[in-house]
Amino acid sequence: MQWEAIPEADRVRPMWEGLLRTGRIPHALLWVGKEGIGKTALAWAATHTLLCEEANPACQKVAHLTHPNLYLIAPTTSAIEPAEASQRLAQALVQNPFLSLSDFQALLKATTLSIGVEAIRQLLNTLLLTPAEKTWRIVWFWHAETLTRQAANALLKVVEEPPNQTLFIFLTTRLEALPVTIRSRSQVWHIAPLSEETLLSYVEGARDAEEAQLWVRLAEGSLSRLRQLQEPTWQELLRTTQRWLSACRDPHRVEDWGSLLESLQRHPRLAEALHLSLVLLRQQTALSLPQQTYAMTRLLEALDALSANLQPAIVLNHLTSDLLQNWKNPPLTWEFLLSG
User: Fold this and answer.
1) Which pLDDT tens digit goes with each residue over 118-163?
2) According to the model, what pLDDT value does residue 338 have?
3) What does residue 53 show for φ and ψ, rounded to 5 degrees?
């Protein structure tokens, strides 16, 4: 993966090349940004510049993520060994550098993934050995926010005092999920989302320009998100979500409430539907700011309830009832919100 193959590579390339010119490459970089905006691809290009100075067999190894001095630390489950998870991650990234965590979960057939202490112990043992090639050794922590506390604690000493010519790259969507001790030992770069103009060039199958623009807005700068939204199952979910939001604003628009609610309750991506609703609300120019604020607050509460494993039917029914009662009648005011 080289810079020229990455959309909007200048989000990182000038800063990275500045480090190369000065020779002041930090021992740990922490790149944070929304999922699917290209953090992994950018790390790949940076890795290419360190391990592949000119056309040689090492370049092919970097291109296939098989270079012996490149270590991928992947989140996994207790049923899959860290080494196997890393190998499967490498294979998946070669196919799709914008791979999402949910796609990797589906690949591993798992609902919850984490980087555990065993993966860190194996890495530490490897770093004690003489490197296979006399170049940099680069460690990627893919979705570093999944590091367990025990794993993060095991990392502290080596991140603080790394072996010579070793670079750790933490790739994360949530900076606050990483311990302060890791953050303080790393140089933090905030990676910007992709622009709407760039995402529009990746839109396929939209019925018209308006639909294409909607998909791009819903993607919020994420290419992996945009690709998801173009899948038939996601298109169905988006249409159902739009119908539900419209019905909450105007109940007379829906003849069969039971069917509409049931289709959302039973959908395996109900949480995603609520996330889509948050973005759709920001596009509703007919709503007042208090109306938008109220609905967003209730949606976030519903998402918290789902993450706490409350029954989806109860969460959705309560949310729908709340919006129907308070969203439109009487019209919401700031006084109402503050009193609640």
Assistant:
1) 999 999 999 999 888 888 999 999 999 999 999 999 999 999 999 9
2) 52
3) -80, -30
**Cα gap 111→105, rounded to integer Å:** 6
> What tokens were used for 249?
């604003």
What's the confidence (pLDDT) of residue 16? 97
Interatomic CA distance for residues 173 and 31, integer angstroms: 8
Calpha distance 31→304 (Å, rounded)? 26
- Spans of the chain, pLDDT less than 50: 337
Mind spelling out the 3-state secondary structure of the chain?
CCHHHCCCHHHCHHHHHHHHHHCCCCCEEEEECCCCCCHHHHHHHHHHHHHCCCCCHHHHHHHCCCCCCEEEECCECCCCCHHHHHHHHHHHHHHCCCCCHHHHHHHHCCCCCEECHHHHHHHHHHHCCCCCCCCCEEEEEECHHHECHHHHHHHHHHHHCCCCCEEEEEEECCHHHCCHHHHHCCEEEECCCCCHHHHHCCCCCCCCHHHHHHHHHHHCCCHHHHHHHCCHHHHHHHHHHHHHHHHHHCHHHCCCHHHHHHHHHCCCCHHHHHHHHHHHHHCCCCCCHHHHHHHHHHHHHHHHHHHCCCCHHHHHHHHHHHHHHHCCCCCCCHHHHHHC
CA atoms within 13 A on the CB side of 185: 21
Query: Burial, 147: exposed, middle or buried (Cβ in 10 Å; 0-12, 13-18, 19+)?
Result: buried
Query: Phi and psi for 254 in degrees, rounded to 5?
Result: -115, 130
In which region does residue 255 sit, left (phi positive, over 0), alpha (psi from -120 to 50) or beta (all else)? alpha
What is the distance between the terminal CA atoms of the chain, rounded to a whole angstrom? 52
Report residue 17 as tokens.
Answer: 């090349």
